[in-house]
Design a protein that fits this description.
heterodimer, A: alpha/beta, Rossmann fold, 2 domains, five-stranded mixed β-sheet, 14 helices
Amino acid sequence: MRISTFLASAAAAVLMMGAANAQTVGVTDTSIKIGNTSPYSGPASSYGVIGKTHQAFWEAINAAGGLKMGDGKTRKIEFVSLDDGYSPPKTVEQVRKLVEQEEVAFTFNTLGTPTNSAIHKYMNAKKVPHLFLATGASKWGHPDQYPWTMGFQPTYDVEGAIYAQYALQQVKDPKIAILFQNDDYGKDYRDGFLKSLGDKADKLIVKMLPYEVTDPTVDAQVLEMAASGANVFFNVTIPKFAAQAIKKACEIGWQPLHLLNNVSSSVGATLKPAGLECSKSQGLITAQWLMDPTDPQWKDAAGFKEWSAWMDKNFPGNEKVDVNYVFGYNASTLLKHVLENCKDFSRPGIMGCVANIKDFELPMALPGIKVNTSPTDFYPVQQEQLSKFDGTKWVLFGQLYDASTK
Amino acid sequence: MELFFQLTLAGLAIGSIYACVALAVVMIYQATDHFNFAQGEMAMFSTFIAFTFLTFGAPVWLAAVGAIAISFVAGLIIERVVIKPVENAPILNQIIVFIGMLMILNNMAGWIWEFTIKPFPSLFPSDWGVQSELIGPHHMGVIGLTLIVLFAIFLFFRFTRVGLAMRAAAANPDSARLVGVSVSWMLALGWGLAAGVGAIGGILVAPIVYLDPNMMSGVLLYAFAGALLGGVSSPFGAVMGGMIVGVLENWIGHPALSELLGFKMNELKLTFALMVIVIVLLFKPAGLFGRVVVKRV
């Protein structure tokens, strides 16, 4: 009885494998189905723009007749994007729906660190590609444990390390204050920074203050850090709090080496609200990898022109200040590149394709930044460059910092 | 010591914003016996209306007055259209309506004005009042204006016929009806006034926290704490409660206290606020300044 059950199920498994080889779930000769979750509602809904950008991107490609893929077939893209409200249990529910009911071939650019953490194991247990996550946490690049998950942007801890090295170089007797958001994102930055300082960390850090997203302001923390006599300020905050901190530091005349995390480096979304004069007088430093759409120095760059024209067509009337449109456009373009060059559309085949990207340049990334992946390197973008704010724009300086060579 | 004063005064300033929102919450609570969970989002929306006037080039005071007037009318309309139909429905229905409004207003604001943060100018000139290193001109103005609003509300309820009618409608609807007060319209008026007061709160908080659709989410929680602490039946209590919560919050967040106690109090700020609510409700259910209302069942 047992043996016959075993045989039957083995036979069924063989049959199913045969079927899978012939046709991957979600992929036909004329279409491919891709899943995504984004926070279209809830506290992180400002990032919903990224999901909207993807939708517009694939709609435009479908309207032009579809995408000619690496196996010679032209397919339309069925992009199914669901709202998870930035709530992890909701993400689990929506992703199950995408995988089990919608039967997508893979998911793409699902947004958020806590939300992706909630589906990390599930995607790998189901062996569904979980691609180019929209989060800078460092845990998405471990192909040995999680062979189906790949990140996208430079990780927060790498960026933290860049700032630490710069502070050690620039300031003779550094007394460092850190303000960080009390969650995975803030701690990733903080830990990367501390690790890079090494043994000296305890001695160099004079204040390390957390804040909660629910706090109305970080004014009290800034007062406290200024009073501690710190001469380096590592500012790990989201745009609203970053603007508050810059403004407050400027108001009370605190002039540290101000290292601003890239998350809040947008001129339009953070520095303008904080006051451009203040931002300039603080001498802000940040590490960048995206072109800031409000930065006039890119207006003649080919990538910017391409993005700008695309925006005018797909989001007419948009002011083009929100860097999320840039982020989404880059991610979608990377996926388009992968699909155009992929010959094997089974799920393992797709993983093989995303783990074999060589020197691809994103349209809206800084000049010189290239996407590279390999079966052991699941961090697509790993280059960043430091820049200083001059009152109207970020001025890049120094060399492109490449974390992959370390 | 200087840091102590700086923290206290900054606490009073942020507390006045909690106070403004708490005041709006209390006004609706007095009229309807319910907490309006959408109060914060209404205030945020009002502030965006002021912001729109500003983009058309209106001076900031005019934009504020315009937004407050529009909010007053909008509050009236919301009561007539959305709240009145569920007036006699079970309490859960009403709460769901409030929460629904919260989400609708939040997403509508994001849809119209986007989610990026926007700078909002202060109502007060930067050379206003006493120049001090301890407190900025805006914070000073916030404290002053909140007290003025409180005083105006006191005068309104104490010395005007409409105010008297509103109090009557809330205290004893049946008798009020018998002497010719339109109770239903008094409720609507309460909503309008609360929306107006909330708008002032929003306009005062925006220069500090920046204007975005989620601006009030943190503020509302502390405002509820303030309203409960001071007493939900007393506008004066709401203002005092808001201020106390603001000052306590700033003290609790201070690392010296954490060092003294040996663990991180800063991360327990919210927990602390909620603990205050629970403790006060245990020992003084009507709040510190609230009257104990005895209801005949």
